[in-house]
Amino acid sequence: MMEIELNDVVKYYDGALVKALNGVSLTVRGGEIISLLGPSGSGKSTLLNVMSTMDGQSSGRVSFDGRSVSRYRPLDRFRARHIGFVFQFHHLIPHLTLLENVELPMMVFEKVGKLRRDKARDLLANMGLSAKQNALPNRISGGERQRGAIARALANNPDIILADEPTGNVDTETGQMVVSYIINYCREYKATLIMATHNQEIADMTDRRILIRNGLVES
User: Fold this and answer.
1) Can you tell me the distance from the alpha carbon of 103 to that of 194, in angstroms, rounded to the nearest whole number?
2) Which positions ≥6 away from 116 have C-beta within 8 Å?
3) How far is 189 from 159, CA to CA, in rounded Å?
4) Residue 99 to residue 31: CA distance in whole angstroms
5) Read out DSSP for 40-59?
6) What are 186-208's pLDDT values in tens digits?
7) What span, in angstroms and rounded, lies between the C-alpha atoms of 56 and 59?
8) pLDDT per position as a tens digit, 76-129
9) Alpha-carbon gap, residue 215 to 90, rounded angstroms
10) Cα 73 from Cα 67, distance rounded (Å)
11) Which CATH architecture has domain 32-43+73-217?
């Protein structure tokens, strides 16, 4: 389990014209399952991007298990090992099959090809996608693409899963299935989940709800 701590985190965009995060301080304990609520433009996606280390903060401190993110190098390897990200839009690589997309994160650690492939097949099977493992993303439905993206996010058994509106582009039934699977995975493997959502029913499935407005955490 890995704890995340943010201290007075500020994030500017557009040459400091836009202040997306306005001094966020927040502690997420290892194994917590949290929903991140707030209106569009409130800073939810920016906060997830900073937590994921895909985007750096303009000022303030981001720490994992008490160590500043600046001390984790190489950062892409740290991210690949510890953090899984589920986007609202799947971001699967279009010229790779579902199986190849799920294998891709494991290549950072030079796993033997057969081990990668077997792990990817198991993850896709868990998402009900065995029959589609050799399909390209543009040959399957939006719900199937999103389930494939979740399988990819779990490929390296991450300690932290960040999900940005993971049900935003799927039907209600698929959305419930997707969220239930992620939450059950986190409970079983003691992983931390922070999920941005507008859906109150989904928020009610989490252990703690955090409201962000105008780049500030309100509760």
Assistant:
1) 24
2) 103, 106, 107
3) 8
4) 28
5) TTSSHHHHHHHHTTSS--SE
6) 999 999 999 998 888 889 999 99
7) 9
8) 889 988 999 887 767 899 999 999 999 998 987 766 678 889 999 999 998 889
9) 25
10) 12
11) 3-Layer(aba) Sandwich (3.40)
Return the residue matching tokens 């050799």. Answer: 134
Tokens of 99: 């199986």
How far apart (Å, rounded) are the C-alpha atoms in residues 46 and 160? 17
Task: Characterize the bridge pairing of strands 160-164 and 192-196.
Answer: parallel
- Name the residue with tokens 């992620």: 182
Three-class SS of 167-200: CCCCCHHHHHHHHHHHHHHHHHHCCEEEEECCCH
Domain boundaries, the chain: 32-43+73-217
CA angle 11-34-99, nearest 5°?
Answer: 90
Cis preceding linkage at 74, omega within 30? yes
